[in-house]
Amino acid sequence: MDIYNDTFMEYLIKRKKDTKGKLLTALIIFGALVLTVVIFIATCALALGMHTGDFGFTLGLLFVAAAWYFAYVLLSSLNIEWEYILTNSEMDIDKVMSKKGRK
Questions:
Q1: Quick one: 30 exposed, middle or buried, by C-beta within 10 A (0-12, 13-18, 19+)?
Q2: Residue 64's closest CA among 52, 75, 72?
Q3: Cα–Cα distances in Å, from 19 out to 14, 23, 75, 76?
Q4: Bridge partners of residue 9, in order along the sequence
Q5: 8 Å CB contact between 85 and 92
Q6: What CA–CA distance (Å, rounded) separates 67 from 28?
Q7: What is the pTM of this model?
Q8: pLDDT in tens, the chain (103 residues)
């Protein structure tokens, strides 16, 4: 096989967000906001009722950070691209999620 006559083409196509994708994004963000408010209210009530002070507030901040991290992971998993690679007569199709992992 002659390496100078090989054909290589690569195309990357990003999936456009439709109404369902936009609604799902809005629901994830709204859910994280609601969870943040609920955690802060519960943390304040717990701190006032049990006199836990700073420990209760720190624990609440950790839960809020975990909720937003989970929302970030969910939102980044919605970013999907398709990569088409044609080498001579062989075609590979990859699904790229979050610009990181390929399937």
A1: exposed
A2: 72
A3: 16, 6, 15, 17
A4: 86
A5: yes
A6: 10
A7: 0.69
A8: 555 677 778 888 888 888 898 999 999 999 999 999 998 888 877 766 666 666 777 788 899 999 999 999 999 888 888 888 888 878 888 888 776 666 5
